Amino acid sequence: MASETTSEIYRRRHGLTRPEWRVLVNLAEVDSLTASELCTRVPAHKTKVSRALAGLEERGWVTRTTDPKDRRVAHATLTRKGRRAADQIRPEMEAAAEAALAPLTPEDRARVDEGLKVLERLFGQA
């Protein structure tokens, strides 16, 4: 698995698009999110998020519930099946990311970590 990229894992092994993977992992971190919240967190255009949600819903991994206070808003939530999928795929993705970073020296890894922290602050994901 060390030579596999993360895209090979979510695409080839699990048949997911990148937006579907990103939506899945974001929904696994919270109880529910609206499409607007997902657009910010993923980040992706609302069309891509909408397609990703539809694909995950078709698999039975996500349900969408209309907000009783604002019928224009739907809350997306992982189903048990979706939670199991996320729990299965996440360790594979983490192992692939770790394998990709393995050749780096500790100093280079520290620089990568610092760079990621800067990007998180820039994009408000910290």
Give a written overview of the molecule.
By secondary structure, the protein is mainly α. The chain has one domain (6-100): Winged helix-like DNA-binding domain superfamily/Winged helix DNA-binding domain (Arc Repressor Mutant, subunit A), CATH 1.10.10. The chain is 63% helix and 10% strand. The protein has 6 helices and 3 strands, in the order ααβααββαα. The protein has helices at 6-13, 18-28, 35-41, 46-59, 80-101, 106-123, and strands spanning 33-34, 62-66, 74-78. The protein has a 3-stranded antiparallel beta sheet. Helix 2 (18-28) crosses helix 4 and helix 3 packs across helix 4 (46-59). The radius of gyration is 16 Å and the shape is globular. The mean pLDDT is 89.
Features:
single chain; mainly alpha; Arc Repressor Mutant, subunit A; 3-stranded antiparallel beta sheet; 63% helix; 10% strand
Break the fold down into its secondary structure elements and pairings:
Blueprint: H1 6-13, H2 18-28, E1 33-34, H3 35-41, H4 46-59, E2 62-66, E3 74-78, H5 80-101, H6 106-123
Antiparallel strand pairs: 1-3, 2-3
Helix pairs in contact: 2-4, 3-4
The SSE order reads HHEHHEEHH
Structural class: mainly alpha
| CATH class category | Mainly Alpha
Report the mean per-residue pLDDT as an integer: 89
Radius of gyration: 16 Å
Under CATH, the homologous superfamily reads Winged helix-like DNA-binding domain superfamily/Winged helix DNA-binding domain
Terminal CA distance:
29 Å
Q: Which CATH architecture is right?
A: Orthogonal Bundle
**Beta-strand fraction estimate:** 5-15%
Overall geometry: globular
* Number of helical segments with 4 or more residues: 6
- Using DSSP, what is the number of strands? 3
Strand line-up across the major sheet: 1-3-2
* CATH fold-level name: Arc Repressor Mutant, subunit A
